[in-house]
Fold these 4 entries.
Entry 1:
Amino acid sequence: MNVMKKPAVSIVIPAYNEEKWMRNCLESIAKQDIAKQIEVLIVDDDSEDDTVKIARSFSKKINVRIVRNGTHDAEIGKKKGLDAAKGKYFMYFDADMEFADTDWFSKNIELLEKEKETVGVLASFKPKKTQNPLTRCISYDVFQRDPIFKAFTPNIDDTIIKEENGYKICRFSEGKIPCQSLCLYRLEIIKKIFGKDPYLMDNDVPVRLVKKGYTVFGFRTDIGIYHYILENLGELFKKRMRGVLKTYMKHLHKREYKWFNLEDKKNIILMGAWVLYANLLFPGMFVGIYKAFKYRDTCLLYYPIINMVSTDALIFGFLKSKKGVNSLLKV
């Protein structure tokens, strides 16, 4: 195993039975132009396949460490990885992701070194021709959001305070934080704020940072990430249901990122209108056709189907939760 006294970057990858994706994910890290300055912490949740074996096979290419999770909770796994991280910069990453560019880290570190006020650099996603049409369709959104998330979350363009050659500087405020937490952070700051927490809750990270006064983030779209998020519509439905029931509603009283404010009756009306829009299909079909011509990619014709399945899964999951029903009754 490669030994580094002080790695530039620590990448934490929570993993459970990820043998299908792990090799390509780690290969994209090994190809980085600063690969020798990166440590990779695989936080394994007692995988029953070759996930760990594949990870260890990369020990001659990159610095790989295995950290045991054992809780079957990815958010706790991320925190275990944070506790073990030694780099100057830190990010968590999914096993089914790949870095699309070999200079992803060097460019983002250059930004962080130049823009001292920034707490991190947000990642952006890219579509890849070899991805299946469903994944490619939502990858045209810079944060890989389903249409419903894009409609009800803040637009990062509204937070930009400065534009430089190749990147943007954004200032966030409470209630004006984009739905994205995949980011290259300054490790010292993240450990200071989340050091005593039992878990690292994805989109809550930027919210906590903003509340503590760390409001400036970098953002660039000239480099990106490929995320193989979907294989079929059934998987989309299950993932959105799981996100509502096991991630969002389970920790609702602790969540700091609220992408939909139920206390505002106008939002309830808007959501009702969105559900109608999504299930009629025809309005979304026109949007999909427009996007297909704009990007010259027929995968975007899946837009209305993805919109309907994702919307209905989120609504169904919300109504299935007692917390969700109770919150509606209070409105």
Note: The longest helix spans residues 303-320.
Entry 2:
Amino acid sequence: MSRVGCKIGTLPTNIFVYADDIVLLCPSWYAMKVLLSVLEKHCVLLDLCCNVNKTVCMVFNPKDKSKVVCNNFPCFSVDGKPMQFVTEFKYLGHVITCSLSDDKDLQREMRNMYIRMNTLLCRFGKCSKKVKVRLFRSYCLCTYGTALWNTYSVNCMKKFRSCYHRYIKTFFGYDRLRSVTAIFLDLQLPSFDTFLYNYKYSFNMQFLCSNNDVVEYLVRIRL
């Protein structure tokens, strides 16, 4: 199957599986057609079926536009049901787009941050500062997927930074013109840059210690 799939170095990377989720990666329409036929055969052998309503296709065009072969492809089908082509999809909670931009995922996390802020304000708005700090550390510094952000617009990241600062000022009752540096020192909370750095550092440490063959190869070529 490595002939119709993708590779990282010499390692076939055309199939990724997590629990009951499967991702198929192929360099061409024909290769994906072959892998889907293999998937269907194994599903029959294992008495499994694919949920076509949650199965989509996404095309990642090369950065060099002169190498784009086609913009429209025939639909794929599984169990005789057609699959939809999409430009973005939420996979394992992370928003993936065909442009590989992380702006959509940044916006997702901003929405979640506002939801958490409003929930905490309604339920714990009158608590002491000490209690609020504990709640903030427990529920608001636990973001998802931030360590994976790599390609995003400056404007989108500025909005996320502003959201983080507004979030803290609102929850702890500070004046909107108060210096955020003074607020972080007063509350002993991480600044926005520190907040992102901590997640990336933790992810890198896990990345370097992984026993996965693909990850180990990526570590070698990165170092």
Note: The first strand starts at residue 7 and ends at 8.
Entry 3:
Amino acid sequence: MTTNPKGVSQEEPDDRKKQRLRSPAYPYINLETAITRAQTFYDREVRNAAPLAVAATDWGYEAKSSSAMQTAAALMSFGLLSDEGTGDKRKVRLTQNALKILLDKRPDSVERAELIKQAALAPKIHQQIWEKWGDSVSDGTLRHALIFEWKPPFNENSVDGFIREFRDTISFAKLTESDKVATEDGDKDTGRAGYIPKVGDYVQWESNGILQFPQSKRVTEISADGKYAMVEGSYTGLPIGELSLAKTPQGLTIVPPPEPRIQVSPNIHMQEFVVPLSDSKRAVFQWPNILTKEDIDDLKDSLKVVERQIARSMNKKSEEEKSE
């Protein structure tokens, strides 16, 4: 067996590579650069979805380069890009928030400024640091905390790159202490990233850049782990990160919120399956990740009911068209 001059086996570099500490996920580029990439995508694709390989070439990368993948991931973490499909069929498109930022040409637009602040705090790591320190922490203190106190900790070789990205993003978004995600007494900062719904609030749900409610709905329950909210007319948990505070629908009278139902276990999370339909429509199926055999049987029976309702809806539409 041949050894190298220092007597280190050929297997050791691989072992060292496996043991390398991976930092928590953070955007590959800062927010200002991400918005520039979003503008480039819009200039070529407008509002259309495009294969990820095409988006890569739009940005000047090789179709399957790691830089292209990391750029797309960064835009998604800022809430500027959404994706659909997998593998070679994976496509990306700009979100509604991205379009509002890019197309709002009003001088000193308050709405655009707020959306940029929201995007800056959309990445989880940004939100956590901003909640803890705001802009009052030095680079040295932040670096030490991220390496030795953060869970999971940062790799010391990549932490400086993250701090630069974080500082550049916060500066570009013009965030101040008044933009903290949540105050000490638990009040929410409405209309910004990190908004924490309360029972009785009216909210809008945006998933993959598409508004899901024709009009805002009232929150009826918050899961025990604080990650999901239930709204009127549904017992499906909606991800808190996809909700925003909305106005009370016109013509409705505000009444006291109902007593919450039994809290959902923190160990239960919602799975989601999205079926793309024609004209950018889609159907969404959600279910908890923990199911009993009886639950599965109930779901199977419920799907049959849904199938009958869809058939009735189609029959009714056909009859209406004939009557015309």
Note: The chain has a mean pLDDT of 78.
Entry 4:
Amino acid sequence: MTEAFLAALVAGLALHAYLAGRQVRAVSRSGDQEAAAYVRARMRYGVAAAAVHALILLGFTIGGGLEALSGLWDPTSLRGGVALLLSASLLFHLAHLPLSIWSTFGIEARFGFNRTTPRTYCLDLLKGVALGLVLGGLGGGGALYFMRRHDPFLFFRLWAGWMVFSLILQWIYPTWIAPLFWKFQPLRDPSLAHRIEDLLKRNGLSIRGVFVMDGTRRTSKANAFLAGLGRSRRVVILDTLIDLLDPEELEAVVAHELGHHRLRHIPRSLAWGAVYAFVWISLFSALLERRWFFTDLGVTTVSDAVGLLLFLWILPVFRFPLRPLFSRSSKKREYAADAFAAKETGPDPLVRALTKLSRHNATARVSDPLYSAYFDSHPSPALRVLRLREKRRIRA
């Protein structure tokens, strides 16, 4: 296991660096100098951050960090296990804090995107840590409670508990979690509100509403997204987007987000997520019974809490080669939502919106196909615009 872990870690780093180089070359050839400079900075950061993350991971596993930390608690008890989960997760997060500071106050500030003040950053950090401790305590404590009985149905109890917990988080996110960090106001533009109401009526859609988020407090980047589950579902528009786009373009962007709702992308994603979770949790329940899983990763203290931490930390290392599968399905959903928006508002407003957004956010209009397969959840703006223009020709 030790050799496989180290090999996967090194291979992942090498592949990350190779793909980042391909992306830099692809964007540099596009002629968009501003986007190329930003991409170069982000790629350098990404590779460096991946290397630092690998060192932190090695320090907590083979380096003996988790073994030393588990000696401070009784990880075999429920209370001690929860304490170990929270303390280890907190230290793991704090070890990555310099990377976050570098990204926010270094790269994003250098290119004019960061508007987060040190005070806001510290408040967000404290609120995020407090929220993580509460949710981690509930989720981790629940998992350890289910794991107290090791039997053939362990994986099913963990899977069912995880799915319920995930659904609750998605349901409460827009109304309880997100407002801890951002302010939300109902859309007040009567013309745009009327456009969106007509769009909803035409498609028989029902959502909680369209809300404007105060994104300008933290970033100059513009975006919109669909959040929530069931009756809590809402479309969220950053105030920076309202300043950037005209009403027709905003309607097209909202139509794209509503397309995810109309095409039932969220329930389908949840269903596939349930399948993936079933596979990973089944694997975890099997590894939990193997002592070598602990000892080969630098831990002699065998406990459910230690096993859970190890699995959560090393899973992304071995899952990295599978990323193109998830990326491909995500891109298909984005193309489908674009098609929905083009049908409802015409392709031209969305084309203009995508063009303005890519320029405003310094997004690379083209991406290296191999890099995009691993790291992009959305198709490149150039590919999206190309498909939309094809739809315009078909309609004509």
Note: The first helix runs from residue 2 to 29.
